[in-house]
Design brief:
The chain is 38% helix and 19% strand. By secondary structure, it is an alpha/beta fold. The structure holds adenosine-5'-diphosphate and magnesium ion.
């Protein structure tokens, strides 16, 4: 295939500008799709309102007068004769157009009409006339030094020179089935649409192609993983496991049991486990993880459990020790604040196999950590880890089985894409005895009511979380708001209840101590930043108060609310805010994380849902997994059929699709 520099008109300077915006090949160039279109349709002077946008064509009647004000600021004025009358035109900073704007020239002017002065302040002037039909012009993302016109010229030249060689990723039988035009035609039309109907038709075709390619990859990875048989084959002593499970102090929910069964089957099978365990906050994923770790231990392998925060890692560690207290299992906690000496001991224990289970933050995946026989890796709240970290952890063991746990229920579309190569177990059912958490929105001037509500719960020997407002990252700002809130609470509750604070900038050891005290009810009111957002489990806490609630995203609010309602007592969540955002209404109305995540998805699109870390996996040039969900489903089905049909195994396209996955 030709290179970008071979395209006529692209010199070294434009080449580097194209590279700058991520266009590095002819393929990149021709698939640099317009991000919108300008529809040019002739307006009439009399029919456009004052101050409104106008598109009009005509002949230049007067020699343009150029005025220069200072460097980088100039203005040109001329009169234009149009079919609906004469009008003045002025345009800023287009001095370079002067030589082209001769009297008698046909031009198209796009701008804003000032009716009183009868002048159009133009933002664009094009040569030529408008036809009676509307004209659709592509608008591209450009960069300084590279105009929309340049972009359009390069793209069309590339299509002219190499259009026929451009890879078409849709198998021909599928193209026939859907009556798709070929790739070259589709590209020609998307860059030069003649009618909105044609444009729509090829847009669907190009979206389909992109999703087909993507879903082919996902399907391929999933099938390969199943086929590879490179997982550890275990024979789990089911009797021993049952004996252990019977001692769990509560009855597992049906969904928990099903999830455990899925995982045990994966551990026994010769394919590597690549499973996502998703369940709403408080649905009880941790115990499922512990059972899996125990089963793995029974088979003689080490397990690693990775959590996104130290608070959570420490909590898991404490629970795990309790859980296995009468077993000979050796468990270690490895975090950033583990002392050097202790760390070295843990490294040694992991390497010689004397440590059976290790819990930690991403300290677990640092290079100096070597495992003796790592068999199972579990990452909790997995959406907080980047893809890279996930991969790194997987590569630690020889062929460890991998379980991801997420409390952010994944909208169906996501489940198909980001996690499309994984198996999914879902816990929907909540443990018995849980009550719905009541959620209220309160205004800042209702703070007295809020304090009263807190007071009532405290009198019932329950505990309260108070989340401080979210603030811009800056030195110590966390500290200030948290401290201010503490003073406020101290003033309200005097010395009746113990109040303490945790925040992200605190030393880890200090954080742990306070969390421990809160857990033991030695602290009744915990004022915190969102560091308690994930995973923290203190069942006696029944009230969550969130200041400036409108500043938080839906999934964060839901996670925070999930800190309460973990025991059998009625719990409440109070959102303090003076603005009426949709998010707060959703929070009042919904308590099902699956519904909330769908709502969040609708409000925000996919970009934010998992933070920026994962959006890199999800960048499509033309498709949008939310609005193109139907196309996605079809592409998923078709690509799987194509992949599994051996008749096509010798197709160049199939080979190409596979090699692009294995090479990149
Ligand atoms: P999450 O899914 O949010 O990680 P956890 O695993 O932290 O939830 O569980 C929340 C709380 O529910 C914990 O205190 C846990 O001990 C308890 N729990 C888990 N499963 C059950 C069950 N089947 N019955 C009663 N309580 C349970
Ligand atoms: Mg959890």
């Amino acid at each position: 295939m030709a290179e970008l520099k071979d395209v006529k008109g692209i010199g070294p300077k434009s080449l580097s500008l194209l590279n700058k915006i991520g266009i590095n090949s002819v393929y990149d160039l021709v698939t640099h799709y317009p991000f919108r279109y300008e529809v040019l349709k002739r307006d009439e002077l009399g029919k456009v309102e004052d101050g409104e946008k106008i598109i009009i064509d005509g002949k230049i009647e007067s020699i343009p007068i150029l005025m220069r004000f200072k460097a980088g600021l100039n203005k040109m004025n001329f009169r234009l004769v149009t079919a609906s009358g004469v009008v003045g035109v002025s345009i800023f900073n287009r001095a370079f157009l002067k030589s082209k704007l001769l009297v008698g020239t046909d031009v198209i002017v796009i701008g804003k009409l000032d009716k009183k002065k009868n002048v159009i302040t133009a933002n664009d002037i094009k040569m030529g006339t408008l036809s009676n039909k509307e004209k659709i012009e592509p608008v591209y993302h450009c960069t300084s030094g590279l105009t929309n016109k340049n972009m359009s010229t390069y793209i069309n030249m590339a299509l002219l020179m190499y259009g026929r060689d451009i890879m078409d990723y849709i198998p021909s039988y599928i193209q026939e089935k859907y009556n798709f035009v070929n790739k070259k035609t589709a590209l020609n039309i998307i860059h030069n649409p003649s009618t909105p109907e044609k444009l729509k038709e090829v847009t669907i075709r190009l979206k389909y192609e992109e999703l087909f390619q993507f879903m082919f990859k996902i399907n391929y990875l999933k099938i390969q993983n199943k086929k590879k048989k490179n997982g550890l084959v275990r024979v789990i002593d089911r009797d021993k496991l049952k004996e252990f499970m019977d001692k769990i102090p509560f009855k597992l929910t049906n969904d928990q049991q099903l999830a455990i069964e899925d995982i045990l089957k994966d551990l026994e099978s010769s394919s590597r486990m690549n499973r996502l365990l998703q369940g709403d906050v408080g649905s009880g994923k941790t115990v499922v993880a512990f059972v899996a770790m125990y089963a793995n231990y029974l088979c003689g392998y080490q397990s690693a459990l990775m959590a996104p925060t130290e608070i959570l890692a420490t909590q898991h560690y404490n629970n795990l020790i309790k859980f296995f207290k009468d077993k000979k299992i050796k468990v270690a906690l490895l975090t950033g604040s583990t002392s050097k000496k202790e760390k070295n001991e843990i490294y040694k224990g992991l390497e010689d196999g004397s440590i059976h289970m290790v819990i930690g933050t991403h300290a677990l995946i640092q290079d100096e950590v070597n495992y003796n026989n790592l068999g199972l890796v579990i990452t909790d709240e997995q959406h907080r880890f980047g893809v890279h970290q996930r991969a790194n952890l997987q590569n630690k063991g020889i062929k460890p089985d991998v379980l991801y746990m997420s409390a952010t229920p994944i909208p169906r579309t996501y489940a198909l894409t980001i996690f499309g190569d994984m198996d999914v177990s879902t816990i929907k059912e909540r443990p018995k005895g849980r009550q719905k958490i009541d959620t209220y929105v309160k205004r800042t001037n209702e703070i007295k009511d809020v304090l009263q509500m807190m007071y009532e719960e405290l009198q019932n020997n329950h505990q309260v979380y108070v989340i401080a407002p979210l603030i811009e990252e800056s030195e110590n700002s966390d500290l200030t708001t948290v401290n201010e809130l503490r003073d406020q609470m101290k003033l309200a509750f005097k010395d009746k209840y113990k109040i303490d604070i945790v925040h992200g900038k605190m030393a880890n050891g200090a954080k742990d101590i306070i969390m421990e005290q809160f857990k033991d009810n030695k602290v009744q009111i915990l004022i915190s930043t969102t560091v308690v957002e994930v995973g923290v489990d203190v069942p006696n806490a029944t009230t969550m108060v969130i200041f400036d609630a409108d500043r938080f995203g839906l999934s964060t609010l839901h996670q925070l609310r999930g800190r309460v309602g973990r025991g059998t007592s009625k719990s409440q969540c109070i959102l303090i805010s003076d603005s009426d955002t949709e998010r707060l209404k959703i929070m009042e109305r919904e308590d099902d994380g699956f519904v909330i995540s769908e709502e969040d998805f609708k409000l925000r699109g996919h970009g934010d849902l998992f933070g920026t870390k994962q959006s890199g996996d999800m960048t499509f040039k033309i498709a949008n997994i939310r609005s193109d969900y139907k196309i996605l489903l079809q592409a998923k089905k078709d690509s799987k059929e194509y992949l599994l049909n051996e008749e096509y195994d010798n197709d160049d396209l199939k080979k190409e699709l596979i090699s692009s996955i294995t090479n990149g």
